[in-house]
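Hi V.,

Quick status before I head out on leave. The structure for the redesign project is tokenized and pasted below; the design run finished overnight.
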């Protein structure tokens, strides 16, 4: 059994449902400390975080990831989600793809790298949290604030999120769109359905608003980012009685956007559409992160070269998909990319990753370290 597979299985056995770490970080710290890493266990609120660093000079390369997993619907799994099972070359278990397999590959790659390079040309660090799958308020964002207070700055960051599509290494995230959510409460006048002239139905009012929001072209994107998307994630109205016109309707929605549409611009444009209803309303916003982009250069070249070396062809560079903790790291000035296993089964029943991919990912991570700070 390979070292990466063995460590992945050990991590899967720890039921670290967000925000509980269940000892994952202690297990990983136990592998890093003998290598000479300086360990900082940082607890903010109910969240465990780990910052581990080794080296005295040169650019700082950081592996970033999360030990927490989403809750499994255990009754629907073919196997125990926290008992790693191998069938037909696939490793099944919660976190096998998102992202305990990546964490294991990072640690084993670091062990091999430091054995080959006792005095590397840069520093090496790990930033681990148990708050990525949850609210993400006491995890990476708090560690980045702590690092700033310490005068520490990350130069290159590889986040182990499952970025691959059909095969390992076919896609790398070299940026992410921003995410902006909103909640609109459109107010009308409650009344009896038989006397509509005495009421004002907010559901009827919001129909044209939804149509306009859904058909608006917010921007056309650019050479780095796809066009901004708008999606409605929820709509609620009614009292539960079939003969009552409701007094309000609530619409929840989300923008995924690039730099072509800053969040303040999106807020302003949507507010104008709602204002045109001439209704009373309440509108609230939540920003989940701004877009970030890793420009071409030494880091991207090192990542793409390592993938081509071990996979036979270079990856597609993409800024699509959801958000990750990279959104908290990039604003510090770090160059951030995401590279990890195939994402076909993440957050699903019977999550799995190919056993062979774990060793190949370890080789890729090692090759990146050699190219960037070796």
């Amino acid at each position: 059994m390979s070292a990466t597979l063995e460590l992945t299985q050990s991590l899967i056995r720890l039921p670290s449902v967000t925000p509980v770490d269940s000892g994952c970080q202690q297990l990983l710290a136990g592998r890093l400390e003998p290598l000479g890493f300086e360990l900082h266990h940082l607890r903010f609120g109910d969240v465990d975080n780990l910052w581990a660093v080794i080296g005295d000079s040169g650019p700082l390369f950081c592996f970033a990831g999360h030990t927490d997993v989403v809750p499994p619907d255990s009754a629907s799994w073919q196997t125990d989600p926290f008992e790693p099972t191998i069938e037909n070359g696939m490793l099944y278990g919660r976190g096998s793809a998102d992202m305990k397999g990546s964490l294991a590959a990072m640690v084993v790659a670091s062990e091999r790298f430091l054995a080959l390079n006792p005095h590397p040309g840069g520093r090496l660090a790990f930033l681990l949290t148990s708050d990525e799958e949850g609210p993400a308020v006491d995890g990476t964002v708090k560690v980045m604030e702590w690092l700033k207070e310490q005068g520490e700055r990350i130069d290159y960051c590889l986040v182990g999120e499952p970025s691959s599509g059909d095969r390992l290494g076919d896609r790398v995230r070299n940026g992410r769109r921003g995410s902006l959510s909103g909640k609109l409460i459109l107010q009308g006048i409650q009344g009896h359905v038989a006397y509509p002239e005495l009421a004002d139905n907010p559901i009827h009012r919001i129909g044209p608003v939804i149509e306009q929001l859904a058909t608006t072209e917010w921007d056309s994107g650019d050479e780095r980012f796809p066009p901004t998307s708008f999606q409605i994630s929820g709509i609620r109205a009614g009292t539960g009685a079939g003969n009552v016109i409701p007094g309000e309707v609530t619409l929840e929605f989300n923008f995924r956007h690039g730099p072509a549409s800053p969040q303040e611009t999106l807020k302003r444009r949507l507010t104008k559409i709602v204002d045109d209803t001439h209704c009373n309303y309440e509108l609230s916003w939540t920003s989940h992160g701004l877009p970030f982009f890793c420009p071409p250069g030494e880091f991207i070249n090192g990542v793409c070269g390592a993938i081509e070396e071990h996979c036979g062809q270079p990856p597609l560079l993409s800024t699509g998909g959801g958000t990750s903790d990279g959104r908290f790291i990039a604003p510090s000035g770090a160059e951030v990319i995401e590279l990890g296993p195939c994402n076909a089964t993440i957050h699903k029943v019977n999550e799995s990753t190919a056993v062979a991919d774990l060793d190949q990912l370890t080789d890729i991570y090692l090759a990146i370290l050699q190219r960037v700070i070796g």
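Above is the designed sequence. The mean pLDDT is 97.

G. will cover questions while I'm gone.

Best,
W.
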